[in-house]
Design a protein that fits this description.
Elements lengths: L5 H20 L33 H27 L11 H9 L5 E2 L10 H10 L11 H10 L10 H10 L6 H17 L2 H11 L1 E3 L2 E2 L1 H9 L8 H9 L14 H17 L9
Parallel strand pairs: 1-3
Antiparallel strand pairs: 2-3
């Protein structure tokens, strides 16, 4: 067979050799056809889409997710806090956390009547500032000197270190107690109050929400209950008596002052004179 057609045999030999060499150098290559493209089964029209497998979250991605969640929660908390504080810059708070606590406990009947700054005797604001927070016009919510002094003296009661702004935050939003959580929230609301309200508004609200006797909140109710007169008619002596009972209004009485309350009222009157009287608050 080979001898009968040697030329044909040579042609066949070289063709087979050429094909073998081509397959060896390109084992997976298929002939290219014009107008055709290769598609995987998952991308073929109508074919089933295979879900791509995902491994566990990397540490970096987990930290990014946690950071994003913390940021969202922080912004939400800030928005809620501002919504709780900002309206009282212009509106009278209808109640306070301490009033609600009294109502729920049922221990005292609540007496409260809001009065504006213009309806309050000028003797009362300066008496309260002299008794409670003499640096009130200058600080930004915290009296760090008083806090340091109280810490050094290791007082059991830290009222002397609390500013009027802190007491407003506590009375409006928080519960009685001395836990670290409550003190932290008190500091947070104090910062917001000092940032969103002018100083005179802070003092006006304090005079309207402070407890002056069992269930008697605000100067509007206190002046009528103790002295049978409107807040605008309070004398210097009466203002000092009201300021004197603020540290413990359920044990001390402005209407029937004890020797201690009477002595404290005289001290407050002397402090008011040293501060310069009502003019000390003229820049509020």
């Amino acid at each position: 067979m080979i001898g009968s057609d040697p030329i044909r045999w040579v042609v066949l030999f070289f063709r087979e050799a050429l094909q073998a060499m081509t397959k060896r150098s390109h084992p997976t290559t298929r002939p290219f056809r014009m107008g055709s493209t290769r598609r995987s089964p998952s991308s073929a029209p109508g074919g089933p889409a295979k879900r791509q497998k995902t491994g566990p979250l990397s540490r970096g991605r987990m930290m990014r997710l946690l950071g994003r969640g913390a940021l969202i929660l922080s912004l939400l908390g800030l928005a809620i806090s501002v919504a709780l504080v900002l309206p009282w810059r212009w509106m009278a708070p209808p109640t306070t956390a301490f009033m609600l606590s009294d109502r729920l406990a049922g221990t005292h009947r609540i007496h409260h009547r809001w009065v504006s700054w213009e309806e309050i005797s000028p003797h009362l604001p300066i008496a309260v500032v002299a008794a409670e927070d003499q640096k009130f016009p200058r600080h930004r919510g915290f009296d760090f000197d008083a806090i340091l002094q109280a810490t050094r003296e290791r007082r059991k009661k830290m009222r002397g270190a609390s500013t009027i702004s802190q007491q407003v935050a506590k009375n409006l939003y928080l519960w009685p107690g001395r836990s670290l959580v409550r003190k932290g929230l008190e500091a947070w609301f104090t910062v917001l109050i000092e940032s969103l309200w002018p100083k005179r508004r802070i003092l006006e609200i304090y005079l309207n929400v402070a407890e002056f006797g069992p269930g008697i909140y605000g100067v509007g109710a206190a002046s009528e209950a103790f002295f049978r007169r409107s807040p605008s008619k309070l004398s210097r002596r009466q203002a000092a008596l009201l300021a004197a009972v603020l540290p413990s209004p359920r044990r001390m009485s402005a209407a029937r002052p004890s020797a201690y309350v009477d002595r404290r009222a005289r001290e407050i009157t002397a402090w008011v004179r040293k501060l310069g009287g009502p003019g000390y608050l003229s820049d509020l």
